[in-house]
Amino acid sequence: MNPVLQVSGLSKAFHLHLHGGKHLPVVEGVDFVVNAGECVVLGGPSGAGKSSILKAIYGNYLANSGAIILDDGETAMDVVTASPGAIITLRRHTMGYVSQFLRVIPRVPALEIVAEAARAAGLPADEALERAGRLLAHLNLPERLWNLPPATFSGGEQQRVNIARGFAGNHRFLILDEPTASLDAVNREAVIGLIAERKAQGTAFLGIFHDTEVRERVADRIIDVTRFSPAKEIAA
Amino acid sequence: MTNLSASPLLVAEGLSKFYGSRIGCRNVNFALQPGEVLAIVGESGSGKTTLLNLLSGQLAPNAGAVRYRMRDGETKNLLDLSEAERRFLARTDWGFVHQDARNGLRMGVSAGGNIGERLMGVGDRHYGRIRETARGWLDRVEIDTSRIDDKPTQFSGGMRQRLQIARNLVTHPRLVFMDEPTGGLDVSVQARLLDLIRGLVADLGLAVVLVTHDLAVARLLSHRILVMKDGHVIEAGLTDRVLDDPQEAYTQLLVSSVLAA
After folding, report:
1. Where are the domain boundaries for CATH 3.40.50.300 in chain A?
2. Is CB count within 10 Å lower at the N or C end of chain B?
3. Edge-to-edge, what's the strand order for the sheet holding A204-208?
């Protein structure tokens, strides 16, 4: 086994200063490993902390304790203690994130959004553009939309641009937060195909999929996050 | 692009400034890497502008130092530079984009002249080449090149701001200070300007110290945020971490006070 991500003893809580200093523990003692070439899916009901775990791993949420060790192929870095600059470098080359929604940047065309992500990962401009086109075509985004900014696209079209952007780099670890939520059957199939292709190349995936059919087909293992729920008396 | 292997371009060490008994800013420490965009956020009066003026050598600190790595690779304390050296740095290796473009432009000089003046400041004397470079920069900041002989007084607010950016970038600075660069502009004009700045910063690999009270601007442009309150840096970190998971009470208040940053 070749672990890409090792999470150990991770806990996350929110301290709400504006609401009487309320302390809201979300997860405690999170332990799991994601190996190269496998897709691990976080399961459990809504509110169990699945998204919070993904965000802590991406450095978007500050972990309160524990370690999130990511192997970039040469060295292992702990996201919890890494500097902002180190996290930016990790995000550029090692870990990618596909969120549920595209954060639209005004005026930037769809093809360019995807190509920019590929260039950020180190691809030369022409290769980046070619890869961006290939991904958008694979995800059935009509070519007439490629040179338009996605602000006016439908939810499903925006989501496909978002997925293409997430897959545009050469990240060895990809976080997927409900990437198929607003897609029809044909496009869900296209995303499942992309995941399978990248798994075969050794990319490690950690994701949340509410769609049971998609989950069954992509998951190598499902981790029930309710076992990381904080003790009830603290939550009260 | 943030370059971690390089040594920092600008370092603030224990920077403090007092106005009598009032704190302008106190004990500010950070290092800025080449190509890194750092946003300084906080309400008016929090010390953002004082800090920006200290960093750019326009104000002398009561304590602490600002170190800058010069183009020859040598790192110098700004306080040790002569006034002439500091001015030369400011018009070659630095840019300064003011909120009010009138403070950064010469309003009585043509658009081409505003850009050309910076080039002449670094010794370029070839009229045709200066004019060609000015034309290229007008185009790059999306100003119709037929306006090259018009004065900024005839330009809209958004155009003036884009001209100010062109004037600053023509000498290929490595560091640009920006003070509320989109403040006071219409929302649609802001969006266009932000996108332009975002593209230029990435293409040219500029390091930027950006002062803004607009968290959406900070999110779009910066890698890292310092949150200031009453002259102190109360929270610092990766931009999306500070905005999505703010730790301090004041940062939580700032973030929750805007609709969608």
Report:
1. 1-14+26-94+171-236
2. N
3. A95-98, A173-177, A204-208, A39-43, A221-224
A19 in contact with chain B, both atoms CB, cutoff 8 A: no
Per the CB < 8 Å rule, is A84 touching B248?
Answer: no
Residue B223 near chain A (CB below 8 Å): yes
As a 3-state breakdown, chain B gives helix, strand, coil percent values, each rounded to 5, of 40, 25, 35
Sign of CA dihedral B32, B36, B37, B39: negative
pTM value? Answer: 0.92
Residue type for position B258: V
Nearest-by-CA chain A residue for B189: A106
For chain A, what is the largest distance between any 2 Cα atoms, rounded to a whole number of angstroms?
57
Fold classification of B1-93+174-261 is Rossmann fold (3.40.50)
By the 8 A CB rule, do B113 and B106 touch? yes
Residue B33 contacts A, CB cutoff 8 Å: yes
CATH class of A1-14+26-94+171-236: alpha beta
Interface predicted TM-score (ipTM) = 0.91
Of A18, A61, A106, the CB nearest to B252: A18
- Tell me the pLDDT tens digit for each residue of A14-64: 999 988 889 999 999 999 999 999 999 999 999 899 999 999 999 999 999
Q: Are residues A88 and B2, on separate chains, in Cβ contact within 8 Å?
A: yes
Of A84, A107, A108, the CB nearest to B238: A84
Residue limits of CATH 3.40.50.300 in chain B: 1-93+174-261
